[in-house]
Amino acid sequence: MGRMERIWGKDCREYKPERWLRDGHYTSESAYKFTAFNGGPRLCLGKDFAYYQMKVVAASIIYRYRVKVVENHVVKPKFAVTMYMKYGLKVTLSKRDDTELAPA
Length: 104
Fold this sequence. Notes:
There is one protein chain. The protein is an alpha+beta fold. It folds into two domains: 1-44, no CATH class; 45-96, no CATH class. Helices cover 25% and strands 17% of the residues. The chain is built from three helices and six strands, in the order αββαββββα. The chain has helices spanning 5-8, 47-64, 98-101, and strands spanning 21-22, 25-26, 65-69, 77-78, 84-85, 91-95. The strands form three sheets. A two-stranded antiparallel sheet has the order 1-2. A two-stranded antiparallel ribbon has the order 3-6. A two-stranded antiparallel sheet has the order 4-5. The longest helix is centred in the middle third of the chain and has 18 residues, at 47-64. Keywords: Heme, Iron, Metal-binding, Monooxygenase, Oxidoreductase. It comes from Macleaya cordata (Five-seeded plume-poppy).
C-alpha cells in the first residue's frame, strides 16, 4: 500500500519526503494509508518507540559527523515489503570539530 498509485498519486514510486509537509510543518498521514505499523485497535505497540529510537540515532550521527553521499554513487530505492536502497547508500562520514559541537 505504501506505493499504490491510487493512494499516493502518479509519483508514488518517487522518494519525496515533502509529501508529509504542509505549509512547512510535518503532517502525519492516516495509519490506514501507511500500514507499516498497522492501524486502529491493532496499532503496533512499538511504533512510538521505533520512531523515537530512529530520531535519536539520526540526530546523534548528524550531531557528531558530516554525512556526504559518495560522489557518482547511484541512489535508487529498491521496492520490496520494506523499501531500501538498491545499491546501498554509500556515504563518507567526517567527524565534526569540537568547535562545531559546542552549543550556541
